[in-house]
Amino acid sequence: MPDPFDPSPDSGDRFTFGLWTVGNPGADPFGPRTRPRIPPTEIVAGLAKAGAWGVNLHDNDLVPFDASPTERDLLVKEFQQALADHGLVVPMATTNLFSHPVFRDGAFTASDAAVRAFAVRKAMKGIELGVELGASTVVFWGGREGVETDAARDCRDGLGWYRECLDFLCGWVKDQGWDLKFALEAKPNEPRGDIYLATTGHMLHFIETLEHPEMCGVNPEVAHENMPGLSMVHAVGQAMEAGKLFHIDLNAQRIGRYDQDLRFGSEDLKGAFFLVRMLEGTCGHPAYDGPRHFDAHAYRTEDVDGVWDFAAGCMRSYKILVARAAAFDADPEVQEILEHNHADPDGIGPILAGFNASNLAALEELVLDPDSLATRGHRYERLDQLAMEHLMGARS
Ligand code: GLT
Ligand code: MN
Ligand code: MN
Prior knowledge:
Blueprint: E1 15-18, H1 19-22, H2 40-50, E2 54-58, H3 59-62, H4 69-86, E3 92-94, H5 113-132, E4 137-141, E5 146-147, H6 155-176, E6 181-185, E7 194-195, H7 200-208, E8 216-218, H8 222-226, H9 232-241, E9 249-250, H10 269-280, E10 292-294, H11 304-330, H12 332-342, H13 357-365, H14 370-373, H15 380-391
Parallel strand pairs: 1-2, 1-10, 2-3, 3-4, 4-6, 6-8, 9-10
Antiparallel strand pairs: 5-7
């Protein structure tokens, strides 16, 4: 009997990993790598074997920063062959605008205009690579877009340059006739002291100030929202409500720590449960229809086998949570509590759904007794316990 929680693209699973995730060799700021680098073609083979659907990449995960055009073309050809051999797709591509020392003061927000120009040109090459590999989404994570000291520049200048660079790139993509979407990824800090546009909410507003807002959405990451103690579920919910969830970075994180990028579901299981419930739409709202991408890496203690245990764990936990979320939403007791709480026997809700003279009159006529309203229980303790019991496998 196949294990129902083992991932399989044939049964519709759309799991993706970055080359940099399973390819992470375990280096940290205090020590060098602890396992060998896995060549991209081997990562493709490993991911296919593990049941993933696709692989994402930065330009420099595949093509070294200083590769010649001939070397580049050869690497791309080998990679394409591996994708074809193993039936994997590349839905998303991104550009490394953070590793090279040229980006030490930012890429699109660097004080030096020549650096900003270099960053835009590198992003164009990264996008070209993505298009060549079939990507439809381009992620921008502005890890270096920030400061250690606000003496460096007024953040309004930084934001203005950020906007100019993204507008330039959107214009160029349109000019090329490519149907691409940009997904902007927020993070509050690390590697910069403060990174501009610290949360998905900041990003959502910034997008509306761009020249082509329809091309741009967000790529929220669990770790980046949880580092400062914010709710990933609310970040994703706001993005979905705005039609802006263009991509997602799934992982796990403990509040207040450095960016841990842990195996999905391995911390804050309850947060992961409500996130999966939202993404899958088991609660009734439309589901997210993009790839379920993991931006995480194995513990530094792991050898290469441990890396594949890590990858399987991300996907299995996601699938297990889908089943738990579906069971929670199908539970008659859960439905009964939610229906009771959301019932509107006096038809009050519609009065608030638009200002006009008749709604205003209806609002003024309502007899509303705050003391009696304040005595109604909501049964959230029971509801949450039901969620926990489904999560812990005590109800099905
Ligand atoms: C880097 C970062 C991630 C981003 C990647 C995309 S690069 O690994 O920590 O959060 O999503 O640029
Ligand atoms: Mn990320
Ligand atoms: Mn991260």
